[in-house]
Amino acid sequence: MTTRTLIRDLAHLPDGSEVSVSGWVETVRDQKKVQFVILRDETGSLQLVNPATREGDEAAATNPEALELTESISTLTHGSMLSVAGTLKHDERVKLGGLEVKIGSVDLASLSLPELPIAEDSSVDKRMDWRFVDLRRPDAQLLFRVQTTFEHALRGWWIERDFIEIHTPKLMASASESRAELFEVPYFETTAYLAQSPQFFKQMAQSAGFGRIFEIAPAFRADPSFTARHATEFTSVDMEVSWIDSHENVMVMHEELLTAGIQSVVERHGEAIRDRIGVELVTPTGAFPRVALQEAREKVAADGYTIPREDGDLDPEAERRLSALIKAETGSDFVFVTDYDTAIRPFYHMRHDDNPALTKSYDLLYNGTEIATGAQREHRIDVLEAQAQDKGMSLEDLEHYLDFFRYGVPPHGGFGMGLARVIMLMLEQTSIRESTYLFRGPNRLQP
Amino acid sequence: MTTRTLIRDLAHLPDGSEVSVSGWVETVRDQKKVQFVILRDETGSLQLVNPATREGDEAAATNPEALELTESISTLTHGSMLSVAGTLKHDERVKLGGLEVKIGSVDLASLSLPELPIAEDSSVDKRMDWRFVDLRRPDAQLLFRVQTTFEHALRGWWIERDFIEIHTPKLMASASESRAELFEVPYFETTAYLAQSPQFFKQMAQSAGFGRIFEIAPAFRADPSFTARHATEFTSVDMEVSWIDSHENVMVMHEELLTAGIQSVVERHGEAIRDRIGVELVTPTGAFPRVALQEAREKVAADGYTIPREDGDLDPEAERRLSALIKAETGSDFVFVTDYDTAIRPFYHMRHDDNPALTKSYDLLYNGTEIATGAQREHRIDVLEAQAQDKGMSLEDLEHYLDFFRYGVPPHGGFGMGLARVIMLMLEQTSIRESTYLFRGPNRLQP
C-alpha cells in the first residue's frame, strides 16, 4: 500500500516530517521562481510548493533532477492524480490550514485532459453527464459521507433491537403493488418485473416469524415524471415489525430511528455541514407532530390554498404549506400525516375498525416534502381478500402473496422511505439528482 | 405496541410473573385433563399449559370462560399466530428451559390452515415454494441472524476506516462486463441492462476522489446454470480503494475484513451455530495463504486430478482439492489464488509489468469454493484501451466507462464477493438456496 498520509492528518505531524500525500490537482500556480500546487484528497486541500529551476538557471546544469521536477509540475493539469513525497512545514501564513509541503518528488498516477468538461456554473444536466468530475466537489463528497453516517446509524439502531437484515429479490413474477409504472424484464421463457418496493417480501418475513426486519436496497418505478423528487431507480429504506397494535407503534419507531440517524450526522458532520453547505442541522427532540389527513386538509384550506386534486390527497404545495404551518406551531421539521382515506391507499393497508373509509396509515413529511409511507398491514386473510377485490385486483395475480396469510401471520406494519429524499431535505438540496450517486430518470441512463 | 416478552427473556423473570408472549404454535397436545401448547417466537420455544375444562365438567357450568378457553385451544392449528397472557412458572421438570406459562387468555391473531404445506423432509424445491413456512425453522432463522451480524461487522470495519457507502444504479445503458448473460429491460424509448456487478460504478468513485467505497447490493446474471452456487439474482459485497500498489494490498484488506466479520459471528452466534447446525466456527488467525494460479494447477495435478478445462482456470473440483491441500498444509479454510492468466480475466484487470500474460488479480476460495474475485484495475487510459481492444471489445460501447480515466484517476483495486456463498460455506450448507432469503434461478421467480 502506498504509505500515504491523509491531508486531514498532516496537522498532527511535527514540522520537518517527511510525508507522502496523494490526491488530485486543484490548481497550479506556475510562477517563474516558485511553483504552487493545490492538492486535494478525500479529506482536504493542501498547498505544495517547489522552488522552480528553469532552463538556463545556474542550478539547472548542476541539478538536472530539479529542472526535471519543475518541468513535470508545469505539465500538471487540473484533475491529474498524483502522489507527492516532501517535507512538511507548519507556516501560519499559509491559508490552507497553516501547512505546506515542499515537494521532494512527484509520482504522476494519471494526467487529466487539459480542460475539465464541467465548471462550477455548469447546468445540473451537464454535471450529471460528468458526474465523476462533479462528485469531486467537497460538498458533494460531504453529502455522501453524511449519507454513509446516516445509514450506519439506522442500521445500528435496528441491530441493537435485534432486527434481521433481509435482501429481498428485485426480480418478481408479478407486480408488487399496481401494474402501472412497472419495468418488465424478459426472463428465460417468461417475464419478470422489477420490484417497485420490497412490500410483499418484507411482509413475508412476518409470516416467517422473523419478528423485525430491515432492508436498504434499490427499487424501480417506470415513472415518466420529471420532478425534483422522482427517479426511475431509488434506494428504499424499509422496516417491518410484528406484533403491533396500530400504525402509531410504527410511527414511534420511525421517529426514534430518524432521530438516531440525524443525531449521528450532527455529531459527526454538523460543523462541516454548517461550514460547507450553510445548513444548521439540529437533532429532533421528542415525538414528531401527528395530524390526521382530514385535519391537514382543513389547515391548508384555512391557509388559503385550494388543493387542485379530486381524490383528497395532499399535493406537493399542500405538503409544503402544511409543513410550514406545523413548523411555525411546533418547531418541528417533521410531521406525520395520518389516517389516509381508504380510496387513496393500497389494498393491504389496514382500515380502521370503526371507520373503514380511513386506513391505519401515515405519510411522513420532512421540510415540506413526503419522504415515507407507513401503515399497519391487513393480516386477516378474509379481510385482505375483500379489500383487494374492493380495489379491483385479481386474487389470482396475488395468489403467492395471499398465501403468506394462510398459515398464520402476526399483526404487523412498517414503512418505506426514500433515502435520496431524506438526504436532499436534510441538506437543503434542490433535487434528488444532487443526493443520488448516479441519478436514473426517463432520459437518464448514463453514465 | 403489544407489551410482549420475548421467550428468550422469560428466564430472567421471577416465578409468578404475569407475562404476555406472542408467536406461533409449534404443537398442541390436547389431553383430556390438560392442554399443552408449544409456542415459538423468533427467540425460542415455550411450553404453555391449560388445565382443561370440558363440556359436562362441573367447572364448565360455573366458569364458562374456562370452557371457552379450552375449546379455543383445541382449535389451534400448527403455525397459528397468537398472543398469550399468563403466569410464569419456573419448573425444572419442563424440558424447554425449565419454564412454563399457565394460560390466562389467548388472543388469536391468525389461524393457520390445518395442514402446513411442507414438512421437515420436504424436498428443497418444495420448501422453496413455501419459503415463508420453511424460514420458520430455527436453523434458518439463525442463518439470517448470522448474515445480519456478518454484514454489520463488515460495514463497521469499513466505517472505522472512513469508507463511503455508495448505491450504484442497477439499470445501465450498456453492459458492465460482457454482453453474455445480461438481462435486458425495455426502458422508455430505449433498452437498459441490469447490472451484473457494480464494477464500472465503483471504479467511478475512484475517479471521483472518494478514496474508499463499499456497497452491498443486488446483482443480476441471466445465467441458465443449475448448480448449488449460482443464482440469477444475488447479493454482491463490493469494495474498491484508491492508492494501492498491487492486488496484494487488496488481499490484506480482504482478509482483515473477513476476519472481523467471522469474529463477530463467532462471538455472537458461535454457540448457537454449534448447537443448532453442528458447525464449529473459528475466527481465522493471521494472513490467508496465497498460491499463484500456476502453482495451484501444479498442486492439483500432483494430487492426481486432471482439470477438464482448456483455458487453464480451476474447475470446482480443482478448487475443492486445492482447498483441501491448503487446509492440510496450513490449517486455513481460506486460500487466495493469485496471478490469473490474462486470457481468463476481464480487460480491466491490471497485468504484471514484467509479464503481461498474468494479471494482478486473485480469487478467494473458502472451504473449497470460490467466493470472491479481486484485482488491481488498469487505470492508465492508453493501456486500458489497448487491453479492451485486445479482448475484442468495442471502445465505443465502453465510451462512458473509458471517460472515467481521462480526467485523472488514482491506481485502485477491489473485489466483489457473493454474500450467499460466504454464508453457505460458513455454515456448511449444501446450496445457496438455503442461504438466500428468496432464491432466483432460471426456473424460480416465485414466491
UniProtKB/TrEMBL annotation, chains A, B:
Family annotation (PROSITE patterns): AA_TRNA_LIGASE_II
Q: Where does ATP bind?
A: 370, 418-421
Gene3D superfamilies named among the record's database cross-references:
Bira Bifunctional Protein, Domain 2, Nucleic acid-binding proteins
Q: Name one GO biological process term.
A: aspartyl-tRNA aminoacylation
E.C. number, please? 6.1.1.12
What's the domain of life for this entry?
Bacteria
Q: Which reaction does it catalyse?
A: tRNA(Asp) + L-aspartate + ATP = L-aspartyl-tRNA(Asp) + AMP + diphosphate
The segment(s) forming the Aminoacyl-transfer RNA synthetases class-II family profile domain are 144-447
Q: How does it assemble?
A: Homodimer.
Task: Please report the name of this protein according to its UniProt entry.
Answer: Aspartate--tRNA ligase
Q: What gene makes this protein? A: aspS
